[in-house]
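EI: anyone free to look at a 152-residue chain?
SC: sure, send it
EI:
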Amino acid sequence: MIQDSQVTDSMTILLVEDDPAHATLVKRSLEDHGVHEGLRHVADGEAALNYMFQRGDYAQSEQSPRPNVILLDLRLPRIDGLEVLRQIKHAPQLRSIPVVVLTTSEADRDIAQAYEYRANSYLVKPLEYQQFHLLMRELGVYWLSRNRYGGG
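SC: here you go
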């Protein structure tokens, strides 16, 4: 359970992850820490942008509530994560939503580009499950409990 948590049922997290095993780990880790509701998952960059801009399958706002935080992988099919980040942070109606890059890439170029495109955080996924689980706990405590969201 996330300590000091004020996570509510109305909190929405958008997970943008193409690897089903990684998506399952994120979901399980967040559930283990008390985040049971509000997790949305899309598996490619095009779907992420459609969700965020409420287009196509996500045109109805009930199907695509604004997330309080976005967990974004970089290596995505159709549209890569850096381009997704760039478009989100370029849109006035979306730019205040925190985007946490959650990726396996430790490349300096990716880190620099992510921050240039205004990522709020850049986290490298640990390979070991216990370390990954701990990272998800820390992520949950900070972004879902302590951080105050000012988006609209």
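EI: The CA atoms of residues 44 and 76 lie 5 Å apart.
SC: 👍
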